[in-house]
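Appendix B, Record 12. Input sequence as logged:
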Amino acid sequence: MAFFKLTIEYLYVIAAPLMFLAYLPQIITLLKTNDGAKSTSLLTWFMWVLALSINTAYAAWVNGDRLFLLATGSSLLGTVLVFSIAAYKRWRTIKTS
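Logged structural output:
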């Protein structure tokens, strides 16, 4: 049982950076787009930011689990980047219209 638990812990450590890397294609696509990120739902990405902010706060101040903090924090960073880029592109398109 100890081996199984240790294996899960190592996989969890690997999963955190992989989760952040999963956001990169969306980030790159948003950086390249010139249409104001019309196909990106700001509400959906904002809700992800909100939910992951709560998860990260829980990990930091309630749970105290550093691995959980790393996982939620890396996902939070990815979602904040996607939301911020999309919101900026949308704002810039509206401003120049």
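The radius of gyration is 16 Å.
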